[in-house]
Amino acid sequence: MSSDISFEQRGCVGLITLQRVKALNALSHDMVKELAAKLGEWKGDDGIKAVILTSASEKAFSAGGDIRALYDGKGNPPFDFFWNEYRLNRAIFRYPKPYISLINGIVMGGGVGISVHGKYVVAGENIMFAMPEVGIGFFPDVGGTYFLPRMKGKVGTYLAMTGARLRQADCAALGFATHATSSENFDAIIDRIAQGEQVEAVLSSYNQLFEPTFDASALDIMNEAFSKPTVLEIVNSLKEKADGHSFAQKALKQLDGKSPTSIHVGLAQVLRGAKADFEECMALEYRIVHRILHEEDFYEGVRATIVDKDGAPEWNPAELESVDPAKIEAHFAPLENGELTFDEI
After folding, report:
1. Catalytic site residue from 4, 66, 85, 133
2. Tens digits of per-residue pLDDT, 144-183?
3. Does 273 participate in catalysis according to the annotation?
4. Alpha-carbon dihedral sign for residues 74, 80, 81, 82
5. Residue ranges per domain, the chain?
6. Which of 138, 168, 132, 148 shows the shortest CA–CA distance to 255?
7. Strand, helix or coil at 247?
8. Which stretches make up the Enoyl-CoA hydratase/isomerase domain (predicted)?
């Protein structure tokens, strides 16, 4: 067992604590495998009535997967990591016992995948949620294909294409979190559920209700623009509104500088995901990752963001208009060998 993740039984709760603090709880392959194994064990343990996931870090719940490790694997992508991670995401989605994530601080990428698919997501006051993968030439995976199009309105499409961040109020109001409260209540939540109190009643007793921080006109523009069927139509819709509304201006700036290929993939995946079940969405993502890790944009994005930190990626192609639609479609084609499969529940 690694020291990056701990498991304990507290009363009738299986308590999981992410404690790779110096790395902002970025998920390693060992962490993924250990979490999957423990969830399998607890599933058949009658003494465990609920599972709670939390973090030992005040700054981050989990900042995502170990992107640097993927970068270092250039030429030999670790597809076994994604095989195990995506199967873990599905195990959480189908978990037969209440699965509760207590989130305060940064939650991105892989950290979203081990939390949002559970039955309950509790947002603390310092939560900062994002799927920022388009900024490094990747795509919003770990089930983003499924949950993003099921958020309120078109906010999920907006997040997939821009990598924009949401704080507590918007996480609660727009469909990322099921509950929101002060992180000071997390220990009490754990203790009360561990003592056998009903999960829904406990969470409801601490829940705070929020309205979106986006005003009504911003949501209207978001829903109108990001309902368009193509990236260029979305951009044109935003440009039409940019002179009169700050949200349209902001969204255009958020799109600027991101990988054009990733933006196109992000839109294509949420359009497909809106009509697919969870397993179909994860299978699509496993196809995408096999293609995108053989392209240059991901390695260039990580270089510019994490390795050299110059903030100046040279995308290929560099313009949204230059992306070949056939190339985007090819990301979703069936794999000749090794399609993602799942164990029986």
Report:
1. 133
2. 999 999 999 999 999 999 999 999 999 999 999 999 999 9
3. no
4. positive
5. 5-130+175-206
6. 132
7. helix
8. 13-332
Mark whether 141 is an active-site residue: yes
Spatial CA neighbour of 138 closest among 242, 340, 291: 291
Q: What is each CA distance from 3 to 21, 34, 84, 190, 232, in whole angstroms?
A: 10, 11, 19, 22, 47
- Token pair for 320: 């949204």
Strand segments (E) across 176-230: 179-180
Say whether domain 5-130+175-206 belongs to CATH 3.90.226.10. yes
Average pLDDT for 191-216: 97
Q: Which entry of 141, 170, 285, 297 is annotated as an active-site residue?
A: 141
Do the beta carbons of residue 268 and residue 276 sit within 8 Å?
no
Is the pTM value of this prediction over 0.85?
Answer: yes
∠ CA(316), CA(317), CA(319), 5° rounding? 135
- Catalytic member of 110, 143, 175, 301: 110
Catalytic residue among 65, 124, 156, 175: 65
Residue 320 backbone dihedrals phi, psi, to 5 degrees = -60, -35
* Amino acid identity for residue 170 in this structure: D
